[in-house]
Amino acid sequence: MTESVISSPHNSRITAARALLTRNGRSKASAFLAEGPHAVAEAVASSRHQVRELFVATDAESRHGSLIASAREGGAAVHVVSDRVLRLLRDTVTPQGVVAVITVRPEAGEALAAARLAVLLDRVADPGNVGTVVRTADAAGADLVGLTPGSADVYSGKCVRASAGSLFHLPVVTDLTVDHAAVAAGAAGCRVLATAADGESSLDDLIADDLLAAPTLWVFGSEAHGVSDTARAASDLVVRVPIYGSAESLNLAAAAAVCLYASARAQRR
Amino acid sequence: MTESVISSPHNSRITAARALLTRNGRSKASAFLAEGPHAVAEAVASSRHQVRELFVATDAESRHGSLIASAREGGAAVHVVSDRVLRLLRDTVTPQGVVAVITVRPEAGEALAAARLAVLLDRVADPGNVGTVVRTADAAGADLVGLTPGSADVYSGKCVRASAGSLFHLPVVTDLTVDHAAVAAGAAGCRVLATAADGESSLDDLIADDLLAAPTLWVFGSEAHGVSDTARAASDLVVRVPIYGSAESLNLAAAAAVCLYASARAQRR
């Protein structure tokens, strides 16, 4: 590699990348950071993401030769930086020598129009929950995850990590309102199912009556307040996951796993 | 209330209770702390738990009159403490004025002998995951959760919180080895199903073939290493949760939710 090593924290590329550690900075730049070779490789492989810049610590350069080559081939500017400078870009303790600046290609509503299984998170506030649901949705073969305004920032470090790479596998649409999503889903022939502890229909009845084989948009509400009145009104059915024991409720990510796998199974039978 | 207010952090009851903030202290005393009126009320109501002591902040005494009365009725010693002293006992930012010292009544292996649906966590290290699985197991109507040596401390503050009260709803057996659990399960007519990404049987096939209606002990392995070789050997089947999309795997708590609800549904049909 011929580049000189960036060792100043005041280098303009470094200050620009550091701004992406905050939600405000990510929002302004429409870009976010991914740390570690695994996440960076997923981003390089994703057709919906562009690795703009790749920062590599001096001692990691030899280890990550093929990753660096493929990032560069995909159009990334590669910068070798001192270990101290790399540490300024990290959100975790161990970025393992590489941090990338990533932009998302604009995702149109048409992703929803073709969806057979989609998820809308309605003001879900915890980034760990958002990341875990993205991972579960990916595992269940969902076509899209949307987030309403007021949800956690899906590009925060914690969410990117919790998604375990799945953020790079399926379209994730932010600032999608419930009404917009419901209209698009309806036009596409998707049934809209919201979940709530007091839902009128039990998930088990929907399974028994074979109502989950149809294209479905699942709406999950916030940890503290559940789905909004808007989401209830926009849904075809409000569904409860049955509680067989004494728990008051399921945690959001567990409820999503149960619902999404029930749909995935029904759609594949 | 007639007690004097404890305002010294060196009071012997306070130092004894503070020792329960560490795993070693909990293990020595066979006791743990629960924070906040909700968790304390669950512990008071649980037949498997004994609230030994209840610490109430001076400004919370009037708010929690009925909780204090029922704890005292159940045999708890109630101590009014200064806000500063209460803060020394907390693991969270807001214990909401009450912290209790709780002991667990010894749980015999017979709980497993009568189980129709049980869970064994095999060296699951993250307390948040352990607490979430306890909550999900409770929601799915499971009869018992066991943890092998090497699992997270189920009585740590993070785990108690993640269980959202479910820790007080069903028997939780710690230091249960895989072999002990498998033998007890076998004697009770429970099928032992371990989960692994490379499992020989798909969960969907088990559902389709109606093999989940039988009494079942589910074994889930560690986040990093999966189920142990011992657990594989002790199981009747190693089951994989199918991945329909591009995710490499499901997170542990999500996989447990999918498996436990599949069993609960089959057993109730």
What does this entry look like structurally?
The structure is a homodimer of 269-residue chains. Chain A has 269 residues and is of the alpha/beta class. Helix content of chain A is 38%, strand content 20%. Chain A has 12 helices and 11 strands. Chain A has helices at residues 12-18, 23-29, 36-45, 65-73, 83-88, 110-113, 127-139, 157-162, 178-187, 203-208, 229-234, 252-268, and strands at 31-35, 49-57, 77-81, 98-104, 117-122, 144-147, 172-173, 191-195, 201-202, 216-221, 237-240. In chain A, β6 (144-147), α8 (157-162) and β7 (172-173) form a beta-alpha-beta unit. The radius of gyration of chain A is 20 Å and the shape is elongated. The termini of chain A are far apart. The mean pLDDT of chain A is 90. Chains A and B meet through α7, α10 and α12 of A and α7, α10 and α12 of B.
Summarize the structure.
The structure is a homodimer of 269-residue chains. With 269 residues, chain A is of the alpha/beta class. Chain A contains twelve helices and eleven strands.
Question: What is the strand and helix layout of this fold?
Answer:
Two copies of one chain form a homodimer.
Chain A: H1 12-18, H2 23-29, E1 31-35, H3 36-45, E2 49-57, H4 65-73, E3 77-81, H5 83-88, E4 98-104, H6 110-113, E5 117-122, H7 127-139, E6 144-147, H8 157-162, E7 172-173, H9 178-187, E8 191-195, E9 201-202, H10 203-208, E10 216-221, H11 229-234, E11 237-240, H12 252-268
